[in-house]
Amino acid sequence: MKSRYDRMDLGQPGRDMGQTRYDMKYSGNQEHENGRLMDHDIPEILLRDGYLIPQIGLGVLRIDDESVAHIVEVALEAGYRHIDTAAGYHNEAGVGRGLAKAGFADGSNRQSVWISTKVSDSQQGYDSTLRAFDQQMGSLGLDYVDMYMIHWPTPFDWRSDSTWKAMARLRQEGRIRSLGVCNFMPSDLDRLYNQVGEYPIVNQIELHPTWQQNEVQTYCRNHLIAVEAYSPMARGADLSAGDGLIEEIALSKGVSPAQIVLRWHLENGTIIIPKTVHKERMMENLDLFGFALTPQEHAAIDGLDSPHRVGHDPATFSYS
Known about the structure:
The protein has a single domain (about 5-300), classed as NADP-dependent oxidoreductase domain (TIM Barrel). Helices cover about 40% and strands about 15% of the residues. It is built from 12 helices and 11 strands.
């Protein structure tokens, strides 16, 4: 998925670049007359392999297969061009139905949308990954995915090397464009590189104001690995973080606390995949370009970091 749209180049990582680009380009929100945010209003990140990923996507964790089809359709109609799913979410078939109903399963529209999915931990390994991928493509109704990811590193049952080799074969066959991982710590990334001679293009991690994982972010930046945040608002907990700091900044700008947190991510150059099932929230999560954080506000949010995650520990967790 390549694009003509403005983008951040990972060859020049850093917050200052991202913040300057967005502030310069987006002096106000630009909407189509029907209220849909136009495709090219969503910034894109230029990945190390040359592909462009929309910086804002829709995550579909814990949305059942029957419901997710309509939600994906609504999101695409609202202007989303990035959907993130996984085998472990048990809703890939519904995502595929939503893509088809909205007209994004094939043709030129398919080329304009970024689809990420992940192999289940129980299906890691060379042969099992190849089989799993075929099953997932059948569920999604797609010929290829833009990114295929290892969901968890499972260092206690390490098969990321053989899984990666299967993914690399699928990439060579043109069925995967970018190879990514989720929840990999620097030690996991080192281990993978030492075995396969390649770093992932994207590392999707839990990341929000009160769990910033700066060591992981620095490692990824130094190796030109794009960082993608899941739970970007700590499942809502960070909206009231800092004794009302987020709410106070939001009030001063006439936006919601969620928009403040998401804007903070964007200014950091982070890819975000907030989950919502409500169209009005979808639109709000895209409406991030009519305001900017001051350096003082951004620094204050940086100062909310803590040692407390809301998700699982990658050292011990497995997602089957």
